[in-house]
Amino acid sequence: MDLPPFRPPSEAFSYLIRVVRGCNWNRCAFCSMYKNLKFEQRPKEEIFRDIDEIPKFFPRSKSAFLGDSNPLIHKDIVEIVRYLKNNRPEVERITAYARIKTIANMREEKLRELKSAGLTRLHMGLESGDEEVLKKVSKGITPRDAIEAGKKAGKFFETTYYVITGLGGVERSKEHAENTAKVINEAKPTFVRIRNLTITNPEMQRILEPLNAEQQLEELRNLLSGIKVETYFTCDHVSNYIFTDRGLVFRGVHGRIPEEKEEMLKSIEDTLETIKALRKAGMKVLTSNDMFRLGLITL
Ligand code: SF4
What we know:
It is a single chain. This protein is of the alpha/beta class. The chain has a domain at 133-141 and 155-299. It contains 12 helices and 13 strands. It has an 8-stranded mixed beta sheet with strand order 1-4-5-6-7-8-9-12. It has a 3-stranded antiparallel beta sheet with strand order 11-10-13. Helix 1 (44-52) packs parallel to helix 3 (77-87), helix 7 runs parallel beside helix 8 and helix 10 (213-226) runs antiparallel to helix 11. The longest helix has 20 residues, at 261-280. It is globular. The chain starts with 14 loop residues before the first strand and ends in a 6-residue tail after the last helix. The protein binds iron/sulfur cluster.
């Protein structure tokens, strides 16, 4: 069985089905997920065989995730989703990673077909709503694409937009937060999932100055403050954690906007106060990027 090497944390208990290998874009400066992998579409017969063999490899699940980074461009994707739905009737939720550019350019008719075949949720990497940041990291999308893709996909599926705090570096932090919130307000994703930038390659070191813990929290606060639409906001990844010599001081915030927004903002403010006090007391405060650089965590 050929499994996708990456999946969102929310798909931890899903059947994992590899539809394509690698990423057909593969140029984002911050991403090293598929750098050494040649992009290819797996033959549908192989995928059907994997679907038939799911009970040998996975405990029974009500959800399935399609990988790798952009399976919706597979020429047989509708047939593959339909085969999965028909042959694993226990599956209620079928999700996939999807490139925003692909969805922005996709005919609505194709999205409708995918929905009727059984696809229910898309995980899409927005990363930033700021045009300059998107260009700088070679994301290959514009804020306009992100709004278009969100509106289009939202008619048929639940959608997740991933955002990377720190992606604008210190110099573009304010614009990155503000413009990302603006895109989210128009695209209206069901979920906003935050990752904090962890630099894994020298190119990113050259193009920006990483945020320290306080700057990370201030950017997160600015982003969250700017989001005015109903969505679920979550920092559901270890990259959001902030560490001290004695353990964790921040595990991210999670909650519904607007109901839990004030509570999340308060938690960020409280953490900022705590960090100030810790710094005064001479303690080290480290972001996940610092921890990764020091070899103290892997992501
Ligand atoms: S589109 Fe996604 S998987 Fe592909 S290089 Fe960019 S971040 Fe990585």
